[in-house]
Design a protein that fits this description.
Number of strands: 12
Keywords: Heme, Iron, Metal-binding, Monooxygenase, Oxidoreductase
Strand content: 5-15%
Distance between the termini: 33 Å
Strand order of the largest sheet: 1-2-8-5-3
GO biological process, one term: cholesterol catabolic process
Protein name: Cytochrome P450
CATH class: Mainly Alpha
Number of domains: 1
CATH architecture: Orthogonal Bundle
CATH superfamily: Cytochrome P450
Radius of gyration: 21 Å
InterPro entries: Cyt_P450 (IPR001128), Cyt_P450_B (IPR002397), Cyt_P450_CS (IPR017972), Cyt_P450_sf (IPR036396)
CATH topology: Cytochrome p450
GO molecular function: cholest-4-en-3-one 26-monooxygenase activity; heme binding; iron ion binding; steroid hydroxylase activity
Structural class: alpha+beta
Largest sheet: 5 strands, mixed
Length: 418
């Protein structure tokens, strides 16, 4: 989705708003529509093409409330609009579980990605990242930064999950095909054929890795899943497989988009890059701003478990509620000048990782990977220049970029890092 540094100039009539159509995210932007909804209809109903009603909440307050309240808003039915009629993995994977099952999976697995542990891996991440960048930023020719950044999440969590380096290139494309099967970049036939192929490849890979870990445990997430106490029993083979898939998808489909949107922002707003290069101590706040700015997950869906009041609207049990994270992260009631990309922004209580019980476990790993990326770019790059058309992902769920041709002007001077 196109991100603008300018606030909406004209109100969008409600009857012109469509938050479902993936094409509106690929060829335009939805921030004007989200602004109109926050202002005039913060709880707003729409139907999917199949006729299923979903209620959109767009203010920071309402999005936070829906995501925090896992007693009234369930994740088990499905968490994205693409499965509005129900996800077949509901109740079986960490992102599609309610309590107490969710906690029984979350608590053991989150230890593999605890902040202290991922920070200890910082230099290992740097080594992987340098191998990704080397040879692409120093010859003056345009580089497709979006393609390059598909490897970023594996540099951060590939080894933590337990995925060998030799599979990193293929797994990222299968994962993106799984989340955006209608996008021309990842389609391998019809949408159904693409999903079938992507799921087959991912499941075959994880089945093999699970088999290896059954024979010999390692210090990785797959081994943790095999041994955790899931309601007084071990997970069966299918449950372990689905959770491996879920963890990989969560990392692979989001972190690269933050990196690409961040570089695009620096190309569009060179002063922001100059500010950061002159003040490398701003790297932590720049990472948080990139997360807010990109909001790689446009929405998260929940289903009401009881009657619930949101603002002036009372919803029945069983209603679908779509919390638009991308809108919440531009809410003028929370963020000053929300349409500006400000590497020094503080405080920055963005919701890019979600909030509450389902807050992204991989958040610390993503923060480390993005911070190391910025350190490497600051040391190498004077400026970024667009070298062609930017192509956005065909998806109402992931705010992605599929092609970002950039010419990098490199630097010979050393930059002192904090």
């Amino acid at each position: 989705m196109q991100l603008t540094a300018s606030p909406p100039t004209a109100p969008v009539p409600l009857d012109k708003i469509d938050l479902y159509d993936p094409g509106r995210y690929q060829h335009g932007e939805q921030h004007a529509s989200w602004h109109a909804l926050r202002t005039t209809a913060p709880v707003w109903a729409q139907h999917t093409p199949e006729g299923d009603r979903f209620w959109s909440v767009t203010t920071y307050r309402d999005v936070s409330r829906v995501l925090m309240d896992d007693r009234r808003f369930s994740s088990a039915h499905g968490t994205i609009l693409a499965v509005a009629r129900g996800d077949s993995a509901g109740g079986k994977t960490i992102n599609l579980m309610d309590q107490p099952d969710h906690a029984s999976v979350r608590l053991p697995t989150m230890r593999t990605m605890a902040t202290r542990l991922v920070r200890e891996r910082r230099e290992r991440v740097r080594g992987h990242l340098r191998r990704i960048l080397d040879g692409h930023l120093d010859h003056g020719e345009p580089v497709d930064f979006a393609e390059l950044m598909l490897q970023l999440p594996m540099a951060g969590v590939g080894e933590i999950i337990g995925i060998p380096v030799r599979h990193w290139s293929s797994i990222v494309r299968w994962a993106m095909a799984g989340v955006a099967p209608a996008d021309p970049e990842y389609a391998t036939g019809s949408e159904e054929d693409t999903l079938r192929h992507a799921h087959h490849e991912l499941m075959a890979l994880f089945s093999d890795l699970i088999g290896q870990r059954r024979r010999q445990r390692r210090d990785d997430l797959i081994s943790v899943l095999l041994d955790l106490d899931f309601g007084g029993r071990r997970m069966n083979e299918h449950e372990v497989l689905l959770n491996c898939y879920s963890f990989a998808m969560g990392a692979i489909t989001t972190t690269p988009q933050v990196a690409s949107h961040m570089v695009l922002a620096f190309a569009d707003q060179p002063q922001a890059w100059r500010t950061l290069r002159a003040n490398p101590d701003l790297i932590p706040s720049a990472v948080e701003e990139a997360l807010r700015w990109a909001s790689p997950t446009n929405h998260l869906m929940r289903r009401t478990l009881t009657e619930v009041q949101i603002g002036d609207v009372r919803l029945d049990e069983g209603e679908l509620v779509c919390a638009w994270v991308g809108s919440a992260n531009r809410d003028e009631q929370v963020f000053a000048d929300p349409y500006a990309f400000d590497p020094a922004r503080t405080p920055n209580p963005h919701l890019a990782f979600g909030v509450g019980a389902h807050r992204c476990i991989g958040g610390p790993a993503a923060q480390v990977a993005l911070a190391v990326l910025l350190e490497e770019l600051i040391a190498r790059c004077d400026r970024f220049e667009l070298a062609g058309e930017v192509t956005h992902l065909y998806s109402n769920f992931i705010n992605g970029i599929t092609h970002l041709p950039v010419r990098v002007r490199t630097s010979d001077r050393e930059v002192a890092l904090p």
